[in-house]
């Protein structure tokens, strides 16, 4: 028996000890797990979507907040890797909190994760439709058309997600390959252009651009602080790899490596990319006021013929990110449902015996996307997107606190990832960073609406929690499986 097969069997036995029959098919290899995590981060998509905000809010100098965010997010990723190496279960932070703290606390983790995950596919696909696909096809901007295209794309992604996890792995490997190609080709092309023409300005890197003279630039919630949105919206989502643990081969090794490797790669590649972009700006005012500064820089340097291939590549990167978000959302719903802690759990926990994917849970994510596209007005959808940033950071904060409170229950396995003597400095640094980043997101919000939406959606879940407490309290009192699995490790 090979080491890989032994690791897979050990992971399946772990699921059985936790009270679960392994139903999901373990098909994702190490690169595919990395690709899923990297696609969730989607550095090209994040920069493409937020570079204009940096130029308008802080000027080019704001890009230097990106490495600060990167260091903080790497610390958070290291904490997640500690958990992922020891509890390889679908649901990630939901499962960790349920097992190590209590099912009640775990439910809170799971509800926040579901809220963040089910809203992500539709928001990404709506940006894909309006910002990439419609311009690529030469279509005039139209909100209704964009919504119809969004629904069509969501249906295609649901079909892929239901068909097989292996197909999701293939599609994401392709999209990540294209995304890496985008960064490499554009980076090399711009670098060569700068060297050949000598027409570049390193002074751009420390320029305030069009924000020069802004009296609110340095205040709390002002332009400079708002520029952190590029890093905070790009370097999130690495935890998706841990949510796919029951479908990953050798998960105690492949998942921690994917988490750390993806956020590190995204940090380095993203920073190099924005440096090259910034140095390449020749008309600061024009680039800073356009809706798509990356495309404008490419047009300035190489002419309009480069924009269409760029849009095609970015479209595929968007598609991969949304597909991963849909799959991840379905896994959270499935994980909570098999524990009886999600509405209609008897249906939502079902896994198709042929495809070995949670079809009902996937259809819920699809249905939420269609409903949002059909009923939610544009301004409300924008506020929901902004609220998503808050809902994403809250689980990071909760997971770090969980680690600091329950680390004594985690086994220090030789085969798994382990921070060793660095775990306390890393955990404390991660906690400090997440508190700061949550403050930055809230302080930088133009209105209170996203904050109200975030906490409103979180509080809405308390209604179902109250229902379980009254009519099905058993599921909030006990975890399935061996109750002594996570006794204190001496």
TrEMBL record:
GO molecular function annotations of the record: transmembrane transporter activity
Gene3D superfamilies, per database record: Amino acid/polyamine transporter I (1.20.1740.10)
One GO term describing the cellular component: membrane
Keywords assigned by UniProt, alphabetized: Membrane, Transmembrane, Transmembrane helix, Transport
InterPro entries documented for this protein: AA/rel_permease1 (IPR002293)
Membrane spanning residue stretches: 33-51, 63-84, 105-124, 144-164, 176-197, 217-238, 259-281, 310-334, 355-375, 381-403, 424-442, 448-467
Subcellular compartments: Membrane
Pfam families, sorted: AA_permease_2
Main location: membrane
Membrane topology category: Multi-pass membrane protein
The UniProt record lists the keyword Transport: yes
Name this polypeptide is given: Amino acid permease
Organism: Mycolicibacterium sphagni
